[in-house]
From TrEMBL:
Record carries keyword ATP-binding: yes
GO-annotated molecular function: glycosyltransferase activity; triphosphoribosyl-dephospho-CoA synthase activity
EC number assigned by the record: 2.4.2.52
EC main group: transferase
Keyword Glycosyltransferase applies: yes
Top-level taxon: Bacteria
Catalytic reaction equation(s): 3'-dephospho-CoA + ATP = 2'-(5''-triphospho-alpha-D-ribosyl)-3'-dephospho-CoA + adenine
UniProtKB keywords: ATP-binding, Glycosyltransferase, Nucleotide-binding, Transferase
InterPro entries the UniProt entry points to: CitG, TriPribosyl-deP-CoA_syn
Name assigned to this protein: triphosphoribosyl-dephospho-CoA synthase
């Protein structure tokens, strides 16, 4: 993979649109290949899904590459295209205006325009995905999450936390071009169970990515632990906390309880890297597969953590393992 980075006089180097698209596609492929994931598609089979397999997920990830590149290009153009101080301008503006008052009074117009452009590119990406998969929803949630983070990195976020905050800002803005259409499964689950789903996770600056999955990946890297086990444990930790509309739509509150308590149990048994934990994980996989419970939202957030973990941020501070690891994450139960 190319590691091309662009330099600008105003700030430290940051990854190009091509590099960001590569990293996003790679994150999706690594999530898809990771095994054994409970209830999810991986190299062993379709998990709780009747309509997907690993080859389809990999083809879908590749089909999203142009969309990720376009999202990054659009974000970079917006950040650099206006303002006397060039690319730093939008980031500084975002920081300065944070928390000043009612949003509409101070929202930078460029950000509103970008939000609608991201929506247009995202919907085109969904269409490209559908063409490759024959209409199967392989990565709709993942495109949303990764797409926002790719855009935030391209704007010039210096750290993963900052990227999550910029993505949150974008996710919270209105998109006047959303087509009226069929109500999604996620929307049905949100209405029925009063949860905020993929959109809420983004608007909250991805607490399960930043506070749950990433610290586990970092800590494992720093301690030289087995990578796949650490990745599976990161997935399980997210599953144990997330209000996943994918699960809620398929299995209701009881389904969500099964997923969350099952994931918690695997971790309590020692996690995927231990014999007992592994047995509990395989048992959970059987249970979720039999009940058609897919933790697709957690899979998306794991891919987002892989992506953020792989971006060469200008600020090395973010590459350090999180010292607050032991604390309870800022996620609702
Ligand atoms: C916000 C999105 C995901 C639609 O969400 P909605 O809940 O209405 O629909 P849908 O059921 O199709 O997708 C939900 C998917 O999100 C994931 N998910 C579910 N729960 C969660 C959660 N709590 N946190 C994160 N992801 C979750 C799952 O993969 C699930 O399948 C998105 O597709 C969208 O609005 N796209 C429009 C294009 C756009 O604006 N793109 C901008 C950046 S790319
Ligand atoms: N490895 C994976 N296995 C299964 N789903 C995944 C995986 N990785 C991510 N996902 C996410 O799970 C979501 C698919 O969920 P799901 O199939 O329930 O969608 P749906 O549109 O509600 O369709 P369905 O009619 O099959 O219920 C995708 O949006 C995708 O982002």
């Amino acid at each position: 993979m190319s590691t091309t980075r662009e330099r600008s006089p105003a700030r430290a180097p940051r990854p190009s649109a091509d590099v960001l698209a590569n990293l996003a596609v790679r994150a999706l492929c690594e999530e898809a290949r990771l095994s054994p994931k409970p209830g999810l598609v991986d190299g062993r089979g379709a998990g709780a899904h009747g309509d997907m397999d690993l080859a389809l997920l990999l083809a879908s990830a590749e089909a999203l590459r142009p969309a990720f590149r376009s999202l990054a290009d659009a974000a970079r153009r917006t950040a650099t295209g206006a303002g006397p101080r060039g690319e730093l301008d939008l980031r500084e503006e975002l920081q300065r205006r944070r928390g000043l008052g009612p949003r509409d009074e101070y929202e930078p117009r460029r950000l509103l325009v970008l939000r609608e452009e991201l929506g247009r590119i995202g919907r085109a990406g969904e269409a490209a995905m559908s063409r490759v998969t024959g209409g199967v929803n392989t990565h709709r949630g993942a495109l949303w999450t990764l797409g926002l983070l790719v855009a935030a990195a391209a704007i010039g976020a210096a750290t993963d936390r900052e990227a999550a905050r910029v993505a949150a800002r974008l996710a919270g803005l209105p998109d006047r071009n959303v087509p009226a259409g069929a109500i999604s499964h996620g929307e049905r689950a949100r209405r029925r169970y009063g949860v905020s789903g993929a959109r809420g996770q983004a608007v909250a600056a991805f607490p399960h990515v930043i506070g749950v999955a990433l610290p586990r990946l970092r800590l494992a890297g720093a301690a030289g632990l087995q990578q796949d086990a650490a990745r599976l444990d990161a997935l399980l930790a997210v599953m144990s906390l997330l209000e996943d509309t994918c699960v809620l739509y398929r299995g209701g509150r009881e389904g969500l309880r099964v997923v969350r308590s099952g994931a918690e149990r695997v971790l309590a048994e020692g996690g995927a890297g231990t014999r007992r934990g592994r047995d509990a994980l395989l048992e959970l996989d059987e249970r979720l597969t039999a009940r058609r419970l897919s933790p697709g939202g957690s899979a998306d957030l794991l891919a987002a953590a892989f992506f953020l973990h792989s971006v060469p941020w200008p600020s090395p501070a973010d590459a350090r393992p999180c010292r607050r690891q032991g604390r309870r994450p800022a996620c609702r139960r």
